[in-house]
């Protein structure tokens, strides 16, 4: 159980949601079951990179392909491996209010520290619907909540709408992943003084330095386990430097920029190939190249072809040798 009361959720978040937070894949076996041992191994690997915390069943966790029982089983595994000292977040987005509340209750009972929720995709067209949806979740749980603003859910909230969501007492902030830089900056400037706003890409640090705001957490991306090893955790180290007020551009250029260029190339390629969907197939194979368990993606996504895998591996190898 979290070590804070509902009324203390913002204070807890200000202290705990810092540095690099990771997002975990859901690895599958060849028989299309959850690869429990692979997931446990992945969690241990990610912890060894020095990240501050992690979330599961998020976009890269392919939550939309998981049954309700599978989502809860992933919660159980992640909570067990995390122990009591590594903060963890559970993605509970759903089109069913009852199922979302059941997921939240299971996450809270299992020992999660935080929930993340997005718009209930498919029928949600109005910001007022999203605000009341999140309010219902917040009323039903003692956990802190981060809202996930992403076009993957069919509705991108405006900065004003995000401000209303952050007025809900135990909503502590926003993962602003709209891919709209103007909206991200506007959200930081409008509500960053009263909520934790996190844009999951490094460009936000340069913009913050220019405009006078600071992002306290990278919440959350896959860059740690795709770019780093426990022996050379340059991405996590860079994020930690930024959190200490040191935007070390030389360190970034030397240790991160080459592999980031490969990531941007393949991220854009795979998103375009899949018509705008998140590139889970690319990230899963990249994770395998780093020694992690991945496996296939479930339909309707498709895996990279053998040629794409070969080309990606060559690009990664070239960048890592620089």
- The CATH superfamily is identified as Aldolase class I
The secondary-structure class comes to alpha/beta
Strand order, main sheet: write it out: 7-6-5-4-3-2-1-8
Radius of gyration: 18 Å
As a percent range, the share of helical residues equals: 40-55%
Mean pLDDT: 97
* SS element count, helices: 14
* CATH topology term: TIM Barrel
Strand content: 5-15%
> Could you say which overall geometry the principal axes of the C-alpha atoms support?
globular
- What profile does the largest beta sheet have? 8 strands, parallel
Helices and strands, in order, run as HEHEHEHEHEHEHEHEHHHHHH
Unreliably modeled segments? none
Q: What is the architecture at the second tier of CATH?
A: Alpha-Beta Barrel
Query: What number of structural domains do the residues give?
Result: 1
CATH class: Alpha Beta
Total beta-strand segments: 8
Q: Whole-Å distance between the termini? A: 44 Å
